[in-house]
Write a structure and sequence with these properties.
Growth Hormone, Chain: A, about 75% helix, mainly alpha, membrane, 21 helices, MFS_trans_sf
């Protein structure tokens, strides 16, 4: 890594002579890093339903084991704001590129090590403890990844195209989801089970480890791309104008506390929707119809293929959302989409009552709404903050929302479904309530489409 790549706040250099990133390099670097990060994250989400309740959380009650597995899934969300603070501090003082490389390495090492962990049968309660540690490391890394990737894309965007460029790091979410689940499907097909309710012994013994270990290959590719980046004009301006702050966290809390609150609630409905339509839906979709609290009764392979099909619409609508948000404004566009999420939450039961076409529609609509609400966030959250605290501010908003939204969403959803007495109805109500809170924040917040992004 060159001295220019590792410069400090005391070593300004002219943005007039600094090399520029090409459009292709920007888009690939922002996309591939988040794809790797989200792949790693969703590999765990799939294993949390399929593998970990059997191997790391033994219990006579399958629901208790599943809830324990989801609790560890949520633990990563607790670590994400800490990662946002740490990597945000580095990103606002040392630069976006340097910080993004560190976040990607942390995520990659943690995911690789999960693939090597001993199970409960081997080492007892040390197994879930080690899993928690690795899961916390994943969350810590993802806390620093997203905002850095969003800044690489949007700070290098042409005028009037920030939302378009900002959708490329967001596209890493559907791509990572599709890659992770497709790999699990291929392995499950290679190691088929005779029991529809339980993976094969070969899969539980060693097959589940392959997706975690495979992540090392993707991390190497992501590092190679990111090491070829140069810093953006916006960050160079911060250096040259001596606007670097000593403690970005203190500055952003003191001067931009309202923006932190707005950004946190902007993301709430998005987080709840996504983790319901992925982690919860897999549990509900594959639970037997004959159980005391019935699910949809699909076998794992069939339902995951349905989810992958839905995730394709996630990717398509993520890309579409950028031009729409640039044309109509982030606020107006997201108010409309959040209102649709509210309606969607209240119409789950009628959709699911239509049989398989209704289930497919439930997944496709949910993933489609996820795309159009998630896409503009790559531009909207960073636009709330000036360049010298943008990494920290956008990262904290994004990741604090993960605690009140994503961390508890699968856990609350399973509890509402199993113990709430209304099946999936109360899960939909839970989503609708989160949409109302996001709508309130959007109505109170400003339009950011035309802010000076280099300042």
């Amino acid at each position: 890594m060159s001295s220019q790549d590792m410069y400090s706040a005391s070593e300004p250099f002219s943005s007039q002579t600094a090399p520029a990133n090409s459009t292709l390099r920007v888009l690939v670097a922002s996309l591939i890093g988040t794809t790797v990060e989200f792949y790693d994250f969703y590999v765990y989400a799939t294993a949390a339903v399929l593998v970990f309740p059997h191997l790391f959380f033994p219990s006579g009650d399958p629901t208790t084991a599943l809830l324990a597995s989801f609790a560890v899934f949520g633990a990563a969300m607790i670590a994400r704001p800490l990662g946002a603070i740490y990597f945000g501090h580095l990103g606002d003082k040392k630069g976006r590129k340097f910080t993004l490389v560190g976040a990607l390495l942390t995520m990659g090492v943690a995911t690789f090590l999960i693939g090597l962990l001993p199970t409960y049968a081997m080492v007892g309660w040390l197994a879930p403890l080690l899993l928690v540690v690795m899961r916390l490391a994943q969350g810590f890394a993802l806390g620093g990844e997203w905002s850095g990737a969003a800044l690489v894309a949007t700070e290098n965007a042409p005028a009037g195209k920030r939302a378009v460029f900002g959708t490329f790091p967001q596209l890493g979410a559907p791509l990572g989801f599709i890659l992770a689940n497709s790999l699990f499907l291929l392995i499950a097909a290679w190691l088929p089970s005779d029991n529809p309710g339980r993976p094969s012994e070969e899969f539980l013994t060693w097959g589940w480890r392959i997706p975690f270990i495979f992540s090392a290959v993707m991390v190497i590719i992501g590092l190679w791309v990111r090491l070829n980046l140069v810093e953006s004009r916006a960050f160079n301006n911060v250096i040259n104008q001596k606007k670097v702050v000593r403690l970005p966290l203190g500055n952003v809390i003191k001067q931009y506390g309202w923006e932190l609150v707005l950004g946190t609630f902007y993301m709430l409905a998005t987080y709840v929707l996504f983790y319901l339509i992925t982690a919860f839906s897999l549990s509900y979709g594959t639970a037997p119809t004959t159980a005391a609290v019935p699910g949809l009764g699909y076998d794992y392979t069939t339902f995951v293929w349905m989810m992958v099909f839905g995730a394709v619409f996630f990717g398509i609508f993520t890309l579409f959302s950028g031009p729409w948000a640039d044309r109509w404004g982030r606020r107006r566009f997201l108010i409309l989409i959040t209102a649709l999420i509210f309606v969607y939450g209240l119409t789950w039961v009628p959709l699911l009552s239509l049989g398989e076409p209704g289930v497919i529609a439930w997944l496709v609509i949910g993933f489609g709404l996820m795309g159009v609400t998630f896409g503009p966030m790559g531009a909207l959250l960073p636009e709330l903050f000036p360049a010298n605290v943008r990494y920290t501010g956008s990262g904290i908003s994004y990741n604090v929302s993960s605690i009140i939204g994503a961390a508890v969403a699968p856990f609350i959803a399973v509890a509402l479904w199993r113990y709430g007495g209304g099946g999936p109805f109360w899960v939909g109500v839970y989503l609708a309530i989160s949409a109302v809170l996001t709508l309130i924040a959007l109505l109170l917040g400003p339009e950011t489409k035309d802010v000076d992004y280099d300042a």
